[in-house]
Amino acid sequence: MSEASEQNPTPAPEDNSEQFSTMALDAEGESEGGKKMSKKEAAKLDRLRKKQELKAAAAANSGAAAPASEDPLAANYGDVPLNELQSKAVTGRKWTEVGKLEAGFEGQVVLFRGRLQAKRGKGKLAFLVVRERGFTVQCVLNVKPDVVSPQMVKYATALSTESIIDVEGVVSVPKVPVESTTQKVEVHVTKIYAISNAEPVLPVNIDDAARSETEIVKAEQAGEPVIRVNQDTRLNNRVLDLRTPANQAIFRLQSEVGMFFEQYLRAKDFIALHTPKLMPGSSEGGSAVFKLDYMGTPACLAQSPQLHKQMAICADFGRVYEIGPVFRAERSFTHRHLCEFVGLDVEMEIKEHYSEVMDIVGELFVSMFDSLNKNCQKQLEAINRQYPFKPLKYLPKTLRLTFEEGIKMLEEAGVNVDPLCDLNTENERKLGELVKEKYDTEFYILHRYPLAVRPFYTMPCYDNPTYSNSFDVFIRGEEIISGAQRVHEAQLLEKRARELGIDVKTISTYIDAFRYGAPPHGGFGVGLERVVMLFCALNNIRKTSLFPRDPNRLAP
Ligand code: ATP
């Protein structure tokens, strides 16, 4: 016997709920008129009472409000009233994730919660697509006595898309696999309840927001009508936009990057620190900062944890990292700059050479990429379905080139570059292409930058002070990391700050930290959003920032 028929015993053919319920309310072995009941009548009444008890228990268990209808299966569907959702009971029911619904569940009754992504009614039959965290499954409601009533089908198809629903049903494996859903099984619904109804008209249709770039481009080229949701519309309605499978995957991937970063560093004896974000002055001279009033004193938001993480090294923490917000008030209207981003920062003592820092960078990122490719396949597939990309090419041992070698490669390719200026975005891209051609990698380190293009705290090279012990790291020709050995001597720091026009008084607490003995050290800063953007070859950093902040956007 299926679960559905157990809970809804087959009524006698002449059964009539309303008639029986009137009887049931009053009768205790006697009918309304006080006339003794026949055995047959008593048995009928008993059946009815049991049925009502089961119905009441089902409603209590599911928390469902019985719809105002005369449907004997009314307890199997309906809107759950708010008071049932105010943490009223712990029922112990077993929930299954949509993403886990696979052939192994065939024949089993499962219960899951998700959003109604799509619905299609066809008389006595309805198909629903239910989505949970980017995974989708097809659900079928087929009118069947004692299991699914016509009213239940009507109720399900009247629900608005994006409503949150609880579904209970039996898993089956269709002969022809469902193409349009991530899960290839089907669920034959026996119960369906709305937990939270979405408004019938949404500012962004999730199907439109999730449409693959390939499909859009194809339709555009064929001159066929197709909806492309533009970036501003997406960001204005980010809560809806984030529900697409690709976005679900992007932020799960981002979470993995952060977690991997921490795990790797902890295994190498780094400790997590939290530096202040309220600063008395700007941490790097010249760059734009967000100014604010700090109890009557002018202050700003930290544009890097740089100074404090170095001070932590002076305080003998040895190896530190931080994951935290970084604020930049630059008016950069580019695909890769935000006004607030997540910085993954590292600082460490070095024994002999800044290559010790580059060793950490290389090993950390190569093992991170390996881990993402191995453990986030579903996420990468989901991103790929909407935004097709080729897997990142990287070497087991990260390629290192000096800045001078990079310049030479560009010159040999006919690019005109000033050997002592920083590379512009276009030349960084070009060099990325040349490196890929020559070394078959899209991830590499460029080091020994000209001192003049690095911040005042960067250590000059011992053999040629025109250059510095610094590096940038690139993915697909775009910068994701800046790092360097830092100056650990107060006098040299003051000199370098003055040379770059920084008022030393404004950074005196930082410089003082180096007066009481400071170990040689170095570190690097990574932009989390850029790592994810470039690993997946996405074209805009706003795609990898949850609620992006840029010169034009401070909400939602
Ligand atoms: P860029 O030259 O790309 O503007 P930067 O040299 O200013 O970057 P750093 O200050 O060295 O960058 O910051 C270290 C890392 O932080 C960068 O490599 C990048 O990944 C990230 N980053 C820097 N600025 C931004 C920004 N405005 N938005 C997002 N990420 C950023």
Share of residues in strands:
15-25%
Unreliable runs: 1-37, 52-66
First-residue to last-residue Cα separation: 52 Å
Main β sheet profile:
8 strands, mixed
The CATH topology of the largest domain = BirA Bifunctional Protein, domain 2
Q: What is the H level of CATH, i.e. the homologous superfamily of the largest domain?
A: Bira Bifunctional Protein, Domain 2
Shape descriptor reads elongated
Mean pLDDT: 89
Structural class: alpha+beta
Which CATH architecture of the largest domain is right?
2-Layer Sandwich
Fraction of residues in helix: 25-40%
User: Strand order, biggest sheet?
Assistant: 7-11-12-17-16-15-14-13
How many domains is the backbone divided into? Answer: 2
CATH class of the largest domain: Alpha Beta
Number of strands: 17
Q: Helix tally?
A: 17
What keyword list fits this structure?
556 residues; alpha+beta; OB fold (Dihydrolipoamide Acetyltransferase, E2P); BirA Bifunctional Protein, domain 2; five-stranded mixed β-barrel; 17 helices; 17 strands; binds adenosine-5'-triphosphate
Put the structure in a nutshell.
Helices cover 33% and strands 21% of the residues. The chain is built from 17 helices and 17 strands.
Please describe what this structure looks like.
By secondary structure, this protein is an alpha+beta fold. The chain folds into 2 domains: 3-18 and 67-196, Nucleic acid-binding proteins (OB fold (Dihydrolipoamide Acetyltransferase, E2P)), CATH 2.40.50.140; 245-544, BirA Bifunctional Protein, domain 2 (2-Layer Sandwich), CATH 3.30.930. The chain is built from 17 helices and 17 strands. The strands form 3 sheets. The protein has an 8-stranded mixed beta sheet, with helices on both faces. A 5-stranded mixed beta barrel has the order 2-3-4-6-5. The longest helix has 24 residues, at 39-62. The chain starts with a helix and ends in a 21-residue tail after the last helix. Bound molecules: adenosine-5'-triphosphate. It is found in: Cytoplasm. One of its GO terms (biological process) is aspartyl-tRNA aminoacylation. Its EC number is 6.1.1.12. It comes from Oldenlandia corymbosa var. corymbosa. One of its GO terms (molecular function) is ATP binding.
